Amino acid sequence: MNRKAMARDDLNDPLGADAPAPVRAGRPWGWIAGGGLAVVAVSLGVFAWVTGDGMGGEPFAVARITTPPPAPPTPREPEARGAEATGTIAGQRRSMTAEEAEQASGVRVNRPGGAHAPGALIIQIPEAVGLKLSPAPDRRLVEKSRHGMLPRIGGDGARPADVYARPTTGAQAPKAGAPRIALVVGGLGLAAGVTESSIERLPGAVTLGFAPYGADLPRQAARAREAGHEIMLQAPMEPFDYPAMDPGPHTLRVGVDASANIDDLHWLMSRFPGYVGVANFLGARLLGDEGALAPILREIANRGLIYLDDGASGQSVAGALAARLDLQGARVDVVLDTPDAKSMEAALARLEQIAKDKGVAIGMASALPQTVERLVGFARAAEARGLALIPLSAAAARGAAPSAGRMR
């Protein structure tokens, strides 16, 4: 084999190696794509003109919907009624079976195998339906500070204690003459699970107290109010064994300048909006010192808030100061934090007896799972025993007699 032949074999001269180079004229991919789209567009236009199908061949369906006249419900015996739908319209009660409800609505329900209407269903309607607390924050009732927004009395005289309160009129009004009980559950905002459980399970008339240190306080406070609960701010105050027992940052203390305590109080007040008042957390030493306590209570009064004394200190002078400062206040009658179920039952019985004797009583407890469980049971049975649950603001009504809940 000569060198020329060897140069032309497939090993030395691959197939197509001597083919002429393609000529690149303009942008062939752009022209091809444009021409293809033009052809498709013309084809669709011709198809639509010939077939009269303006949808261009896209599948569609036409259905005629008619509403048959409602069939009158067939009377049934109680034992044969099956599932029932019950409603209240204009104060009148109306009951019908699920089958009757379907017939009356004009909607036909096809069930596999010719099955009948389902069994009884229970629909739980939240207690707060129809009850709406005023939005918070109300722009009239806040002012800026270096710590954040603080509550205040509005230019029109509106007070947070009144605007943010849970209504007690209309359907929420307690039955005339019924002994009234205000329950306050505190310590919320620190543990998310307990906080959410308390908000959901406790009746809306139960007032909830939030500690100022939670990471999600504005949302949790708003959630509580959406569920119908009135809310309170719990302010840490100096106990006798401070600092061994330290309630937390910005504790209000004895022996410091009044302006320092007010600044700490403003920090506490700025943590979340919508509360009706302030309750002490601990504070036995501060509550017994009139000089340290008076400026704090005066600031609370000047901002249109309620003050709640938790009743744990027998040396508290808050009641005497409240009268001089025209402060709307109340004092807890029974502390419901007990070591066991038997003690809790005894405390609740004492609270109920005070309500029967004086017309109103206030009980306070910490948001512990077992305590919340017992309070849920107590609240369910309260109405059956002729008691009425009311929010704290109703128990601490401004200008009311001591028997109606004024601080005493």
Give the radius of gyration: 37 Å
The level of helicity is 25-40%
Number of strands: 13
Distance between the termini: 126 Å
Q: What does the average pLDDT come to?
A: 80
Return the string of H and E elements: HHEEHEEHEHEHEHEHHEHEEHEHEH
Strand % is 15-25%
**What's the story with the biggest beta sheet?**
9 strands, parallel
Which overall shape is indicated by the principal axes computed on the Cα atoms?
A: globular
Structural overview:
- This protein has 408 residues and is an alpha/beta fold.
- It contains 13 helices and 13 strands.
- The protein has helices at residues 3-7, 28-51, 98-105, 160-163, 192-201, 217-226, 258-269, 284-287, 290-302, 318-325, 341-358, 369-382, 392-395, and strands spanning 84-89, 92-97, 142-144, 149-151, 180-188, 207-210, 231-237, 277-282, 306-309, 329-331, 334-335, 360-366, 388-390.
- Helix 5 (192-201) packs parallel to helix 12 and helix 9 (290-302) crosses helix 10 (318-325).
- The radius of gyration is 37 Å and the shape is globular.
